[in-house]
Amino acid sequence: MAIQLKTRRGFLGRLAAAGAGGWALKQGVLTPPPAAAGVPEQYPGVGVPVQYPDVSKLPWHWDNGVKVFRLVAEPVKRELIPGTVLDLWGYSGSAPGPMIEVNEGDRVRILFENHLPEPTAIHWHGLEVPNDMDGVPGITQPYIVPSGRFTYEFTLRQNGTYFYHSHMAMQEMLGMIGPFIIHPKIPYSPAVQQDFAIVLQEYAVLPGNTVPNTMSMEYNWLTMNGKSAPAITPLIVRLGDRVRVRLMNLGMDGHPIHLHGMEFWLTGTEGGRQPVSNWIRRNTVWVAVAQAWDCEFAADNPGVWLLHCHLPHHMMNHMASTVGPMTRGYGLPANVGMPTSMGMIGGGSALSRHYGASLGRGTGLETYGTPEANGPQSPAERMAAMPGMAARKQGMQPPSTIAPNANQVRGFPQDAYMESPRMNMDSAVASPETHGLPPGWSGFLGGMEMLVRVLHPKEYDEIQELRRQAGREE
Fold first, then answer.
1. Any residues with CB less than 8 A from the CB of 227 and at least 6 apart, and which?
2. Which pLDDT tens digit goes with each residue over 405-430?
3. What is the pTM of this model?
């Protein structure tokens, strides 16, 4: 139940209604009833488990009342989309790292091993732990050297959405973050039927490379749970479910995450669950660096909806500057090297058109003079340029994507403009969660774009059965 607090009269009226449902006003804060309906019996006092699409959870075992986890920092390979594999650093085989999912009041022990070629340590972002467990090298603990080990142990006295990450800055930019979810002793109210965790990350990767440039200030691979669209697994929810999406961001950019089709309530931050009086109703939330937001909504609008970053450059994959000179008129050179763009001449006149400003994102490629054109292509040329990948011939594909007078329109073509729809990867990214999507759907997504599928019970059950058969059940 979301309580809007727009006016004093409205607040008092809703407070009376809330009181009838078990809510109470204590020290000026509206608090939920001691128990919430709809909590599965197999998770008493906890709520539904959090789903972490495309990444795993970290296993644990009991040791005299302590939950024991083994976490390894190590180099990993991560396939962002089919055919694009990056060399990253992560935890226990993945980047982002596996989820640690625990309960308020648990005593946890993390047996940490460093398999990296340099020292590291882990910070527990937002957790109130003893100072010597905070994971800041040189301040609260010694470096954990390569092949070294360290044991973190503490009792959890909070609940909400937190995360862990390396406290070495450049290691963070190689993927070293993972969710740390703490379920409350008293279940949140209203209860949710679906709970998802989404980690937002970004990488700068030059063409022909597999290792991100951690010094870059601009990024061309944007990921959600370590995948870029269209390879991001859709969220599957049943019509009528209440849904929580936990967003976490660790990178250099903030992300305005927008949900189509439904509004949500912001119910929690990296500081934990918020009082109902602090909830805000939005359809877009700015997830700043090092922040977490819990977004809750009623899935009451059936269909296929987007959940995505609204920064235009963050809805593309491997965005790089167009190579070669412009083909229409004098124009500017595209993506020359840094010395040339700074007027550092290597011969001839400093006022030559070969020096000075250029188009591009500064990826450092010396590409001026490359005999590639960026003019409009014919359908036959587009097909020839995409061996093994068929342009969409069905579904929503228009007959032509370039206007006949494109050469005469100012602003066309833009740097990095793709002059045909993105490649159709339907079969390459197929999963139970994509079953039933329209043909060619994958060609319309890129970067930080995720699908949220609100399905009628019959369709929902069908996909859940496919997930069960594929061994993808939660």
1. 54, 80, 81, 233
2. 877 777 666 544 443 345 788 999 99
3. 0.76
